Amino acid sequence: MFEQGATAVEVAHALEVSEKSARAWRRTWTTGGAEALASKGPPGPKTKLNQRQITRLEHALLEGPAAAGWREDQRWTLARVKTLIGRMFHISYSLKGVALLLHRLGWTPQVPVHRAAERNDDAVTTWRKTTWPQVKGSRAGWVRGSASSTKPDKR
């Protein structure tokens, strides 16, 4: 856009960025050309694992915690993945580093649904349809007002 004569204001408006950023880009472009504006890659430190190690780690994760020696439950925690990386590659990661690595690999946190083992879904549905409306009452009976005892509702 700068080569075509666009001003920093026009670039900022077209790309929906601040004018300050566009002016900084223009200065960079003026001194170093289009190559100076090229991406330098994602920010932050490089991963400690190479692609072959990452592939091995993913295979180990897919096999599950039991295959790695955890028999209590079958959930991967950040602490377990950190330990697994240490065992497999003799590389130390922080829990935050493990979370970032897993995120880059497309793994997401999974939160199990906590439900009582004795839960009866049919009974819950019946209660919601029959008992709850009686307990709740109608919305028409609700009176709008102020929650403050010192400031009455202004109508």
TrEMBL record:
Q: What is this protein called?
A: Transposase
| Domain Winged helix-turn helix as annotated: residue spans | 72-131
